[in-house]
């Protein structure tokens, strides 16, 4: 069967080489002399053109593809040791647009010179830079900066289950970070890439035009996200509604949007007669030109570049081969992208895009063929339903691995989201084309804004359905592979009626169940006290089995983003409900003038979060003392009143308070766990 899909095999082994090099290191790299010998042997056997060498040729080709993938990543990686110990300042160039964050602006910097004790020296390192919001957003792509200080290495996740931002940056060859603030000067401007700079300018013009004619903020946010990929104006309410209904994919310009445009191009060219075989190269050229023009409108964002590259290969495949195989075409486009940037294999967008397209190509005809519908309208509804099922089956396990939720009403939402995405995308492009006629554009913008408001309302209604989202789904990488084998085995059994596939699927379903039981059984009979490593926050998370309770400062309790980043991953792994508003664990706790006394299964915890002052109280003996908010200036304040087996100093204390207490503790040989230096604190015991 796989003889028909050579590029599927080629891409698989090339990608396997990339992944192996990433996880296993240089050990997978064949010695260059041996690799050269394999290449020479392959060429010699290839020219003999004998059937007896076919198996050897096949093995050699897979070894070579694996090695090429491993070496491609090895060449792509930057030897970024970055000795910044004596660095006083550095010069860097902005190689990305400033991105607005909650309290700052983020941009990627590429250092080209740094100042140390010997003067200015050449350097090549990338830095993830954070600027004061107002100053940072005033910067532009290509600005040259003189920055005081030196960057630090990116840090690993601070808490269990936390998003690994260090790995995310490493996939972009970024290994350093710095909060620059306003400690910089703009010393010049030089565009790193002329085409990217022009694309950004074009997108800014398009953003201004769409914003001018769509007044409603929520409607404007959706149009900008769906048409141009600009998500700056999306608020949490919109994001949560679209996410809960399985419609979040329409707000990230990718394969769906480019596929819509490609389909329209094909329909228009067919209508004017250019779909005939003799015009195939005209059709391919026009399709590719229009697709890359759209990519320019979106600022050449990575997700659009992936999708446009994919459909460009599809257009070329149609021109080159009368009976071109879509699987080979898609695999060839993936191979081309991985040759350009091997770390795309680690990109969630890359993985989901290709899985969705492969799933739709393979599964849609099979599901669609299960029911023959005579009514034209119902046939379209059934076709959209089949597309939704195919895409969800292909991407569902991976989505649960990354996003830990499953939208239960995705079939309902996609019935109107997919046609709406089509209408909004085309409407947005028409509005841009009409911008030369302000009166007409204003009228059309009002209509388009009304349509988007209706879509937003429908999405909000579906998101409020009972149990609209299954939250708190925990999948390991192994679990994800097992679920894919289960789905693949059952699908192949239904297609081929071979029981071996069914047995494989059922075996993996059993293995998945065992994996889940093994993981969560370790949490079912245990109790845990955790003090999180959360920036400037005091966060205590208590757990008994699968029930939890949080004690934290008000700022953290009222900040869903901080909760999602620092706490949700840890709770997800242990089977506790992620929302602290749904906490079920009842623990005795007593409010004191200087904090709270908490008891968990006989273990006493004193959370000292206010100054001790001159209160007169009996001596307190506790198992854990958690010091927050600069509650004490000296350990001597504790001697007469508080005795603790374990003292924890959390991150809500100032740098100077922590330094003073640690110096005193060292002199008196008192053991203190400092969250800032020692990391997340956890004490675990069994029931």
Give the tally of β-strands: 20
By secondary-structure content and strand pairing, the structural class works out as alpha+beta
Low-pLDDT stretches are none
The chain-level mean pLDDT equals 87
Count of helical stretches: 24
- Choose one word for the global shape: globular
Strand-helix topology:
Blueprint: H1 6-24, H2 32-48, H3 54-76, E1 89-94, E2 99-100, E3 104-116, E4 119-132, H4 133-137, E5 143-148, E6 152-153, H5 165-170, E7 176-181, E8 184-189, H6 194-213, H7 217-228, H8 236-244, H9 255-271, H10 280-297, H11 302-320, H12 326-340, H13 348-368, H14 376-403, E9 405-407, H15 410-433, H16 438-463, E10 469-471, H17 477-496, H18 499-524, E11 526-531, E12 539-544, E13 547-552, H19 554-557, H20 560-566, H21 568-574, E14 589-592, E15 595-600, E16 603-608, E17 620-627, H22 636-639, E18 642-649, H23 655-667, E19 672-674, H24 675-678, E20 681-686
Parallel strand pairs: 4-7, 16-17, 17-18, 18-19
Antiparallel strand pairs: 1-3, 1-5, 2-3, 3-4, 5-8, 6-7, 9-10, 11-12, 11-20, 12-13, 14-15, 15-16
Helix pairs in contact: 1-3, 1-12, 2-3, 6-7, 7-15, 7-16, 8-16, 9-10, 9-11, 10-11, 11-12, 12-13, 13-14, 14-15, 14-17, 15-16, 17-18
Give structural notes:
The protein is an alpha+beta fold. Helices cover about 55% and strands about 15% of the residues. It contains 24 helices and 20 strands. The model has no long low-confidence stretch (mean pLDDT about 85). The chain is globular, with a radius of gyration of 29 Å.
């Amino acid at each position: 069967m796989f003889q028909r899909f050579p590029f599927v095999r080629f891409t698989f082994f090339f990608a396997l080489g990339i992944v192996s090099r990433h996880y296993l290191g240089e050990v997978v790299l064949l010695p260059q002399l041996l690799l050269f010998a394999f290449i020479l042997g392959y060429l010699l056997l290839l020219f003999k053109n004998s059937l007896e060498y076919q198996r050897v040729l096949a093995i050699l080709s897979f070894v070579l593809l694996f090695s090429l993938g491993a070496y491609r990543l090895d060449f792509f990686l930057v030897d970024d040791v970055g000795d910044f110990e004596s660095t006083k300042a550095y010069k860097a160039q902005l190689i990305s647009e400033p991105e607005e964050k909650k309290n700052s602006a983020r941009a990627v910097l590429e250092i080209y010179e740094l100042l140390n004790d010997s003067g200015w020296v050449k350097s090549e390192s990338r830095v993830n830079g954070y600027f004061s919001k107002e100053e940072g957003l005033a910067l532009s792509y290509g600005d040259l900066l003189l920055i005081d200080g030196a960057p630090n290495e990116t840090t690993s996740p601070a808490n269990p289950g936390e998003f690994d931002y260090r790995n995310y940056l490493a996939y972009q060859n970024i290994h350093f970070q710095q909060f620059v603030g306003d400690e910089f000067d703009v010393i010049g401007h030089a565009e790193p890439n002329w085409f990217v700079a022009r694309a950004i300018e074009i997108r800014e013009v398009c953003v201004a035009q769409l914003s001018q004619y769509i007044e409603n903020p929520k409607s404007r946010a959706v149009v900008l996200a769906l048409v141009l990929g600009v998500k700056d104006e999306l608020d949490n309410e919109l994001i949560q509604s679209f996410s809960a209904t399985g419609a979040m994919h329409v707000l990230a310009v990718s394969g769906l949007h480019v596929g819509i445009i490609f389909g329209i191009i094909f329909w228009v060219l067919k209508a004017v007669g250019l779909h005939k075989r003799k015009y195939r190269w005209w059709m391919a050229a026009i399709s590719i030109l229009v697709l890359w023009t759209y990519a320019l409108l979106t600022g050449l964002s990575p997700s659009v570049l992936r999708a446009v590259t994919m459909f460009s290969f599809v257009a070329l495949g149609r021109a080159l081969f009368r009976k071109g195989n879509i699987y080979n075409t898609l695999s060839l486009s993936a191979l081309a992208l991985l040759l350009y940037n091997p770390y795309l294999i680690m990109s969630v967008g890359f993985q989901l895009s290709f899985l969705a397209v492969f799933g739709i190509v393979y599964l849609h005809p099979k599901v669609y063929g299960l029911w023959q519908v005579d009514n034209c309208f119902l046939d379209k509804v059934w076709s959209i339903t089949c597309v939704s099922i195919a895409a969800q089956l292909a991407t569902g396990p991976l989505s649960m691995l990354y996003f830990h939720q499953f939208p239960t009403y995705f079939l309902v939402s996609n019935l109107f989201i997919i046609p709406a995405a089509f209408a909004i995308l085309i409407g947005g492009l028409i509005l841009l084309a009409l911008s030369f006629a302000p009166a007409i554009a204003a009228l059309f913008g009002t209509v388009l804004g009304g349509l988007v408001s209706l879509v937003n309302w429908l999405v909000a209604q579906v998101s409020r359905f009972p149990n609209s989202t299954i939250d708190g789904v925990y999948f390991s990488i192994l679990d994800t592979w097992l679920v894919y084998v289960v789905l693949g085995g059952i699908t192949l059994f239904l297609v081929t009626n071979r029981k071996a596939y069914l047995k494989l699927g059922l075996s993996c379903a059993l293995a998945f169940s065992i994996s889940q039981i093994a993981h969560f059984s370790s949490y079912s009979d245990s109790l845990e006290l955790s003090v999180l490593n959360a920036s400037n926050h005091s966060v205590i998370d208590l757990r008994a089995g699968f029930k939890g309770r949080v004690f934290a400062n008000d700022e953290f309790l009222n900040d869903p983003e901080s909760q999602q980043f620092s706490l949700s991953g840890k709770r997800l792994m242990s089977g506790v409900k992620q929302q602290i508003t749904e906490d079920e664990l009842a623990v005795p706790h007593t409010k004191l003038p200087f904090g709270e006394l908490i008891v968990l299964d006989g273990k006493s915890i004193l959370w000292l979060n206010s100054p001790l002052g001159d209160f007169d109280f009996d001596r307190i003996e506790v198992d854990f003392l958690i010091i927050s908010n600069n509650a004490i200036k000296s350990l001597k304040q504790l001697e007469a009143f508080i005795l603790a087996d374990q003292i924890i100093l959390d991150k809500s204390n100032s740098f100077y308070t922590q330094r003073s207490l640690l110096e005193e503790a060292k002199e008196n040989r008192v053991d203190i766990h400092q969250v800032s230096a020692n990391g997340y604190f956890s004490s675990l015991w069994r029931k």
